[in-house]
């Protein structure tokens, strides 16, 4: 078959992003990073070199997803995302995951190996999974949770979680999970969704500092636009100066919009994913504790709304600036049209005067031409009279005057028409 060049990639994509089964007890460590394009290949090769089974066989899948086993039965899942990647290590058995030293004893240098990957860490999480509540509760005091910030609820019906979603002294966020008899496949799916919720939440919140950073600039641009609107009626301010200042403001606004557009769009997309994951988890509150939904509604949504408000302000300011520019250009064009109309009326009056003057000159030209023609004819008549010794020259000259004037007028008129016809 002649396959489409993207067929295998899109089909493979539907089978990626899946975690292995989680058999409690176990510990999970995950890093989510922003990785520059220049380090992508290095990151991929570091994983391939460490896999127990060797490099992945499927080049399409391995380009964006790797799942395998490392030393001492430690499983690994690596995913490449549009803005970076996530690396997840699954440590089997029970251990004190909060101590870097104890994790190192359990899995050698794997924790340090994972921390040394290229890129900037957006989120790092240590998760302990135990079979039941009774086995996980003794670990709660060791996790370093702030009691007034502690979140505990049920997800997927009976899986219970504990976390305060803070960065602890070891640089990681801590999460405790009790499976409570949940099937390992379902437990894996729920924990993965829980992690995706937190990862997308952190990525979405990357837009908040950007929104806060550009807020003073937006205030300044709005104030400047308002000041320009007030100066429209000032007779001392010319349209050219207004248009120049408005153009400068528009360029600054375009630059600002270009700078924040990607981050704000990403925040909106991640926020949608957070809401979807929250709905999929179906968390049930537990009396005395805040739930995932409470945490999200109270802290996450206001930050997302701030980012959306920034986008709306930029859009409204762009619309107002474009409208102001359009109105100012319309006013300038109207003034130019009025000036052109006055100029045309002035030209029309000037042309009328020139036409009347031309007609006057034309009449005078007929008279002058007739006068000189009669003068020439008079010489001829007088000469003929002198030859014939007759005295009828004055009568002949007088009789010729009307015909000569009429002939001169017809000749001038014919020449005028010919010139006008050639001008067209």
Q: Would you write up a description of this structure?
A:
By secondary structure, this protein is α+β, with helices and mostly antiparallel strands. It has 3 domains: 7-182, no CATH class; 207-342, Methane Monooxygenase Hydroxylase, Chain G, domain 1, CATH 1.20.58; 359-423. Helices cover 61% and strands 14% of the residues. The chain contains 11 helices and 9 strands. The protein has helices spanning 7-13, 37-50, 59-62, 100-107, 110-115, 133-136, 184-205, 207-230, 239-281, 292-388, 393-423; strands spanning 26-34, 65-69, 75-80, 84-92, 120-130, 151-155, 159-163, 173-178, 284-285. Strand 2 and strand 3 form a beta hairpin.
For this entry, give a set of tags.
9-stranded mixed sheet; 11 helices; rod-shaped; alpha+beta; Methane Monooxygenase Hydroxylase, Chain G, domain 1; 424 residues; 3 domains
Work out the strand percent: 5-15%
Biggest pleated sheet: 9 strands, mixed
Nearest-integer average pLDDT? 82
Number of helical runs? 11
Q: What is the 3D form?
A: rod-shaped
Q: Please report the distance between the alpha carbons of the first and last residues.
A: 71 Å
- Please give the number of β-strands: 9
Global structural class: alpha+beta
Order of helices and strands: HEHHEEEHHEHEEEHHHEHH
Strand order of the largest sheet: 2-3-4-1-5-8-7-6-9
Low-confidence stretches: 57-61, 97-104
As for the number of domains, it is: 3
Range of helix content: 55-70%
Radius of gyration: 46 Å
Oligomer: single chain
């Amino acid at each position: 078959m002649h396959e489409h060049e993207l067929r295998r990639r899109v089909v493979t994509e539907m089978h990626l992003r899946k975690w292995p089964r989680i058999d409690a007890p176990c510990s999970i460590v995950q890093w989510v990073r922003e990785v520059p394009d220049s380090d992508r290949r290095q990151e991929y090769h570091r994983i391939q070199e460490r896999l127990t089974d060797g490099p992945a066989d499927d080049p399409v899948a391995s380009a964006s997803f790797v799942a395998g086993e490392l030393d001492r039965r430690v499983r690994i899942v690596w995913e490449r995302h549009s803005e970076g990647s996530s690396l997840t290590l699954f440590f089997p058995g029970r251990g004190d995951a909060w101590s870097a030293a104890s994790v190192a004893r359990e899995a050698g240098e794997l924790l340090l190996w994972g921390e040394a990957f290229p890129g900037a860490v957006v989120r790092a999480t240590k998760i302990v999974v135990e079979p039941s509540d009774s086995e996980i509760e003794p670990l709660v005091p060791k996790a370093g949770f702030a009691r007034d910030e502690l979140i505990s609820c049920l997800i997927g019906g009976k899986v219970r979680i504990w976390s305060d979603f803070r960065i602890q002294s070891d640089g990681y966020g801590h999460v405790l999970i009790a499976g409570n008899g949940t099937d390992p496949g379902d437990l894996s799916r729920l924990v993965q969704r829980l992690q995706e919720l937190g990862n997308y939440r952190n990525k979405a919140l990357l837009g908040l500092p950007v929104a806060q950073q550009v807020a003073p600039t937006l205030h300044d641009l709005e104030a400047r636009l308002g000041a320009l609107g007030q100066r429209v009626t000032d007779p001392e301010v010319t349209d050219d100066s207004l248009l120049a200042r408005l153009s400068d403001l528009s360029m600054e606004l375009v630059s600002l919009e270009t700078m924040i557009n990607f981050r704000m769009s990403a925040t909106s997309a991640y926020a949608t994913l957070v809401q979807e994951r929250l709905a999929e988890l179906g968390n049930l509150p537990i009396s005395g504790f805040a739930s995932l939904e409470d945490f999200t509604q109270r802290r996450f949504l206001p930050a997302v709304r701030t980012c959306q408000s920034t986008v709306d302000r930029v859009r409204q300011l762009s619309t107002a600036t474009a409208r102001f520019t359009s109105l100012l250009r319309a006013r300038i064009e109207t003034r130019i049209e009025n000036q052109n109309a006055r100029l045309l009326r002035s030209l029309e009056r000037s042309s009328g005067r020139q036409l009347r003057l031309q007609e006057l000159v034309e009449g005078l030209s007929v008279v002058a031409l007739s006068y000189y023609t009669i003068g020439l004819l008079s010489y001829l008549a007088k000469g003929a009279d002198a030859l014939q010794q007759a005295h009828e020259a004055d009568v002949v000259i007088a009789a010729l005057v009307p015909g000569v004037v009429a002939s001169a007028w017809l000749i001038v008129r014919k020449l005028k028409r010919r010139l006008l016809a050639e001008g067209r």
